[in-house]
Design a protein that fits this description.
By secondary structure, the protein is α/β, with parallel strands linked by helices. Helices cover about 25% and strands about 10% of the residues. The protein contains four helices and eight strands. The strands form two sheets. A six-stranded parallel β-sheet has the order 3-4-5-6-7-8, with no helix packed on it. Strands 1-2 form a two-stranded antiparallel sheet. Helix 1 crosses helix 2. It is globular. The chain starts with a helix and ends with a strand.
């Protein structure tokens, strides 16, 4: 006798037993719903794997301690300016990884100079108008999604190429002390200052 047939037979014999079976199923559904809710609740945090980056967020009052590798997304998603204090001495407090910056979706200005960044993913930060990432260890910088950029300063890095074709609003550009040998600024007709060597 199959289970479904058994349940149907039990229902006809005793409706109370069928209600108990239904309650057990309901308990399972409630447990599944709670599990899914906890996953959704966890998704409301943005991972910040670099403890030095999280320390800065705590000092700025954006995150609260202790350092746990994440920040509440609600604390960062409406932030428009992030100014990370420069680490002029390059000590052990320098930030090496800005993973999590993608959660700062409303950022218009980002200052992250004098750190030890080797990469910077700003593809989700499409509202950026000003980016200052001077004196890092960047070899590549993709700003093709940052079409609102008006000011870009990334001097003293190791950038070898930079695609500016989509950044038609650029007014100020400083690429000094990089490894760029050729750069096309033909689409950047609004440029007022341009430094590269």
């Amino acid at each position: 006798m199959s289970k479904s047939l058994f349940i149907v037979n039990v229902y006809f014999l005793n409706p109370f037993i069928f209600v108990l079976i239904k309650k057990n199923t309901m308990k399972k559904l409630i447990l599944i719903a709670l599990f899914l809710f906890s996953i959704a609740n966890y998704a409301q945090n943005t991972a910040i794997p670099d403890p030095n980056f999280e320390k800065v967020l705590i000092k700025l009052g954006i995150d609260s301690g202790p350092i746990n590798g994440e920040v509440a997304t609600s604390s960062i998603k409406n932030l428009t300016i992030l100014s990370i204090p420069p680490n002029y001495f390059g000590d052990s407090n320098a930030i090496t990884d800005l993973t999590g910056i993608e959660g700062f979706t409303s950022l218009t200005k980002l200052y992250c100079d004098y750190q030890k960044l080797t990469r910077l993913n700003l593809t989700a930060n499409t509202n950026l108008t000003q980016l200052v990432c001077n004196d890092n260890l960047l070899t590549n910088l993709d700003i093709t999604k940052n079409t609102k950029l008006t000011d870009l300063s990334c001097f003293t890095n190791k950038i070898t190429a930079l695609d500016l074709s989509k950044n038609t609003l650029l007014r100020n550009l400083n690429l000094d002390d990089n490894l760029i040998s050729i750069i096309d600024i033909s689409n950047n007709t609004l440029l007022e200052s341009f430094f590269v060597r």
